[in-house]
Amino acid sequence: TDISIQMAGFSDDRSNETSQKRRRTWASANKSSGDTEGKNKRTATLMDLDVLDCSICFDTLTVPIFQCDNGHVACSTCCKKLKRKCATCSLPTKSRNRAMERVLELLKVPCENAEFGCSESISYAEMSTHVERCAFTQRPCPFSGCGFTGSYEGLVEHSVSKHTRSLYMFECGEPVFMYPKVGERVVLKEKNTGEGGGGRELVVVECFETPQGRIFSASCVGPPMGFMKFPYSFKFISSVGDKLCFESSAKSVREVSGEPPSEHFMFVPSYMFPDYKLRICINRKFTLGSYTTTTS
């Protein structure tokens, strides 16, 4: 990918180092005297953004970046998984690569959703975070067998227009009873209340079979919002009256993976099946600074 980027303090013209040093000295002198006209941004072209990916997991490098004594770099996630041992030469990976971190902070690239309408340019180090929150990020329909993909707003409209009969409607604080089958998804949409911006949330409940019982989990399909969360509670009732209760918060996801979760789930032992009732109650929790309020 040929992407033109703005990088303060970098130049692709290396033919005359003396001239460059003089220009930098002149700009520095102007800055110290209060003249900011000399502080001009210069541009460079990075021919392949893949050089900024982790060589182990191939995801975008994010700060902090670590390296071994031979200069092999890795993202912090891979460093932890490999117990800070270089995957290339086996030397300890303990040193921070400050220069590469600075490059990532200075790189400005268009959002990968530009073709869908996003006009923002983001620091390359923050691209992954931005894409997760971007309203134009393409999200697949959570209904099994549906091939629709669109923005979050488009996904909500699609779910209402094409899957109305399959949608479970919910109101915050009100219980909804369901009977999820193994391997299938139950999709819930908040009713349009006209208050607090509600009515756009999609919550997906999944059920997975294990040798010892079944796993139930809930997730919210949509961009994460730091100030708003969706705590929920499960109540499982067997045919003989045994009950299990579980509380958690629905994690915001780009798409439903269809894989059993490793955390934040309710486990129900086999003896409580096959006949049962499952109740879910979803709330909306706002956090602004030290102030927290829950809508129910």
TrEMBL record:
A zinc finger (TRAF-type) spans 109-146. Residues 1-40 are annotated as: Disordered. Its EC number is 2.3.2.27. Pathway: Protein modification; protein ubiquitination. Residues 106-164 form the SIAH-type domain. Residues 11-20 have a biased composition (Basic and acidic residues). It comes from the Eukaryota. One of its GO terms (molecular function) is ubiquitin protein ligase activity. Keywords: Metal-binding, Transferase, Ubl conjugation pathway, Zinc, Zinc-finger. It catalyses: S-ubiquitinyl-[E2 ubiquitin-conjugating enzyme]-L-cysteine + [acceptor protein]-L-lysine = [E2 ubiquitin-conjugating enzyme]-L-cysteine + N(6)-ubiquitinyl-[acceptor protein]-L-lysine. Residues 109-146 form the TRAF-type domain. It holds the Pfam family Sina_RING. The keyword Hydrolase does not apply. InterPro entries: Sina-like_RING, SINL_plant, Znf_RING/FYVE/PHD, Znf_SIAH, Znf_TRAF. GO terms for biological process: protein ubiquitination. Transmembrane segments: none annotated. E3 ubiquitin-protein ligase that mediates ubiquitination and subsequent proteasomal degradation of target proteins. E3 ubiquitin ligases accept ubiquitin from an E2 ubiquitin-conjugating enzyme in the form of a thioester and then directly transfers the ubiquitin to targeted substrates. It probably triggers the ubiquitin-mediated degradation of different substrates. Belongs to the SINA (Seven in absentia) family. This is RING-type E3 ubiquitin transferase. The lineage of its organism: Eukaryota, Viridiplantae, Streptophyta, Embryophyta, Tracheophyta.
